[in-house]
Amino acid sequence: MPDAGAVPTRPAVRAEPDTTDLTADVAVVGAGAAGLALADALARRGAGERVALLETPRADLRSPERTWCSWQDPASPALAGSVGAVWPHADVVGPGGARQRLDLPVPYVLVRSGDHARAVGARLAAAGARRLAVTVTGLRDSPDEPRAVVRGHDAEGRPVRVRARWVVDTRPPRLPPEVPPGRTRLLQHFRGWFVRTREDAFDPAAAVLMDFRPPQPPGEVAFGYVLPTSPREALVEYTGFSAAPLDGAGYDAALRAYAATAGLPPFDVVAVEQGVVPMTDEPLPRVVGPRTVRLGTAGGATRPSTGYTFAAALRQAEAVAGALVAGRPPVPPRAYRRRHLAMDSLLLRALVTGRVEGAAFLADLFARHPAERVVRFLDGATSPWEDLALMRTAPRGPMLATVAERALPRGLRRQPRG
Length: 418
Ligand SMILES: Cc1cc2nc3c(=O)[nH]c(=O)nc-3n(C[C@H](O)[C@H](O)[C@H](O)COP(=O)(O)OP(=O)(O)OC[C@H]3O[C@@H](n4cnc5c(N)ncnc54)[C@H](O)[C@@H]3O)c2cc1C
Prior knowledge:
Blueprint: E1 20-29, H1 33-44, E2 51-55, E3 67-71, E4 83-93, E5 99-112, H2 113-127, E6 130-140, E7 148-154, E8 159-169, E9 185-197, E10 206-211, E11 221-230, E12 233-242, H3 248-261, E13 267-280, E14 287-289, E15 292-294, H4 310-325, H5 338-352, H6 358-368, H7 371-378, H8 384-392, H9 396-405
Parallel strand pairs: 1-2, 1-8, 2-6, 4-10, 8-15
Antiparallel strand pairs: 3-5, 4-5, 6-7, 7-8, 9-12, 9-13, 10-11, 11-12, 14-15
Helix pairs in contact: 1-2, 1-4, 5-9
The protein binds flavin-adenine dinucleotide (FAD).
Pfam family, one: Lycopene_cycl
InterPro entries: FAD/NAD-bd_sf
Protein name: Lycopene cyclase
């Protein structure tokens, strides 16, 4: 495996006397979507005992609980015991209120991270995988040493050292404060209310995937969605694609307005989720040392144009587990095809420069193409022919201008709006 040199290599350091010293074949750092998926995929292949899964006990570092939605086979072994809702149908609502009902080729599936962690946790325990409450603070991976060394601290602050043949790091990536030249970064940010109504208000068979009726701030995209889990319960979210998230009051105002637009009857908010997902074409290396790879968001699993990550993280994890079991280096596959990343890069640029109105663009995609094609595009699974068909309906002038801009010196390029 190439040494990308991103993991600093240091001379061997003698462990502190009270260090807990462990050896594992595969150290998986982080038990979020990607880390759980990999440990589970190994356990399902009979290789659970090879795994040490390290998750921070520190609340300030830990990824908060969340819901993951994606197009999946709900009967997939990776989701056994984790599926919270399945929608065979979805609605898309255009900026003017036109509603389109999609019969989804693959259902839209909701997984709550807490349920998933419990279901996978039970499988890992049965498979003999080790789980360690450790905050990882350093990695040493040198071509001169037979194992990589993961260092960290347990909940009491005692040092822990895990020597591993392979390290799979899924900690969220730290993007530089400044976006590198020629790259684009938008934030997908959202707050969702888990609501309960006093009367039946939702169709549990149909999710509202995107509703573009919320006001569209210039150069940004805003939409709401409604994910019903019963006739009286739903996750109602407000999402923006922009340079900065809203503050709490901003989200609540947007959600109140959206609930009114969507015609929700009186409801109680029983829980809240909030998050920010960077949508970017910045490179995220998957191989960062002779024995260290990155997976999930850290390994480029977030689709730049949509923020969807979960399905790609699962796909990467299955491939990495397959490689490990077959005795091959566990290099995660590229999460998305090159041409999809190139399309995303253009689209992001067209959005941030304001050349393309995001809401109209996305609503138009659904209006002008079969649901299957658009869903496959959002999921990163379209064929070249499908991509061509999608590009033919994209606003030609703005997209061509964005392509042409790439040839200009940086100073002459259009700056992001906002
Ligand atoms: C609120 C929210 C909702 C989302 N919903 C969707 C969705 O519906 N569909 C979709 O496709 N994507 C969604 N995403 C995007 C993406 O799927 C998630 O962010 C997903 O959790 C990414 O998985 P991951 O394993 O890469 O990272 P994470 O799930 O964040 O996992 C990283 C893990 O590393 C641990 N960790 C961090 N630091 C350390 C350390 N120093 N030592 C040890 N462990 C550490 C964290 O506690 C965490 O468990 C959502 C994101 C958010 C924030």
